[in-house]
């Protein structure tokens, strides 16, 4: 039986509802990148990652940036995408004009190696949010979403949550999300990482088809198989921070052959050139770099040049290079119905207003919280179970002065539970959400202000309802005074404690570089707050030079407010009556509060201080996010 090779390359996808965009050609000249070595105490100068590299990536071409580990592939991609600026020298031009970062962010998208997706959204929900944020009101979003997911093979999985998608489906969804506004330039960092050979082929095939539609597609790839290697139009190969080849796939082997570097028969040229760049065939990188700078690659870019230079060598590449010339750049496809729409390439602002972004993100955040088992369902169960456990252990002790010490301990235990139940889930989940936020914000979906406001408002109902359930259980099971004012006071303090604790967790999560750091810092940060809360040590025992710490502990105000709600005056100013008890001086509520330096008239002050802590911590967390985004823009993403 004779087997015939099937040409699996597809024609470009035809989208009828994408907005009109101009194709982009990226040119870079004498790009260098330096990073400091050593530390602030022992400066060792600078290390050069990229050394005066130049080149151009054209519209309509799929370009692979290759090289051994440490050659500078990701660094070059990050600089071209605008994510690295500090320490960079050289120029980057877009269509012959100097790149304007704010403008280029709207013209490009960056799809990272790890597909950062919200796990609790379905494919259709994620695509709908993307279309609502990235497209104008006048555009047909529903038709566009259906068209994109159908073309990219995700229609049958449209109601599947992203956490249940396969690796290839997640990669395609990441492309779909960025394709909504039809970006002329798409950057991919290791798009085949973690995928099997067939799925990798499908992803590269998709990128090839997108490039044929007139887009500039640039990706880093380490060692592609021969099957993948043949699908690229252009290669930009780095070695020791400089270009050792810049040209077509067809011209690679003849170029190497002209330098007496002969790729063995039936050997993958991609593997061979990586071995050359790694120095396995001697120190030849300087020679290749010099040839590239002299324009020697241009001699091997046509069929005639290739056949003339190495007629015998090219025959061995029948199964590992393209059989046709690269696709010519064409205009990005768009329907005639949108041809009269205003082209927003010159508009540096977001396509939607801040209020619209806030509303869309609020609905998305609320939906994710409702579906999150750890953040919602587990928190609900824990509030009920811990409330019942406290209620059983401290059953009906509130009106018995003999158990005053135990009752005060129960009040502090309630404060402690509210602190950790609000803080730790946020500490654990917020850093993971941060990765999604970084991708979407850097790809110009929405502003930091809109995201932060939506995140703040979305979780407030849960921070109000869960403490209510908890307070109802423990307040009445432990036999606290059946006075409406006192219960309301106790509940208000509990809600404020929960809100402030969540704000602290958000600050720790935003400021921590990794989830492990945030997990460690959460409990550690709570130790001084609890130490100066007034329960373990009285104010008069605290050294003078540490007294200020007690005023910086919001747990102090939460604990004092809870004590006042139980033993102090109520809203009407009426003091609590003496508690029945045979022990002397144990039935006076004022005396009980004085033992913990709590003053009955301080309830309003405690509430005000908790509100101030809430606002200040939220503001600091916002500034921490803003600083982190700035660092990402200059030093790129922390996980690279």
Average per-residue pLDDT, rounded, comes to 79
Global outline: elongated
The CATH class label of the largest domain is Alpha Beta
Class by helix and strand content?
alpha/beta
Q: What's the CATH topology name of the largest domain?
A: Rossmann fold
**Quantity of strands, as a count:** 10
The CATH architecture of the largest domain is: 3-Layer(aba) Sandwich
In CATH, what is the homologous superfamily of the largest domain? P-loop containing nucleotide triphosphate hydrolases
Any overview of this molecule?
Residues 26-265 form the ABC transporter domain. Keywords: ATP-binding, Membrane, Nucleotide-binding, Transmembrane, Transmembrane helix, Transport. Mean pLDDT is 79; it is low at 1-10, 303-343 and 634-640. Helix 14 (404-442) packs antiparallel against helix 17. This protein folds into 2 domains: 26-38 and 45-317, 3-Layer(aba) Sandwich (Rossmann fold), CATH 3.40.50; 354-635, no CATH class. Helix content is 49%, strand content 11%. The protein has a 6-stranded mixed β-sheet with strand order 6-7-8-3-9-10, with helices on both faces. A 4-stranded antiparallel β-sheet has the order 2-1-4-5, with helices on one face. Strand 9 (234-239) and strand 10 form a beta hairpin. The longest helix is centred in the middle third of the chain and has 39 residues, at 404-442. It is an alpha/beta fold and 640 residues long.
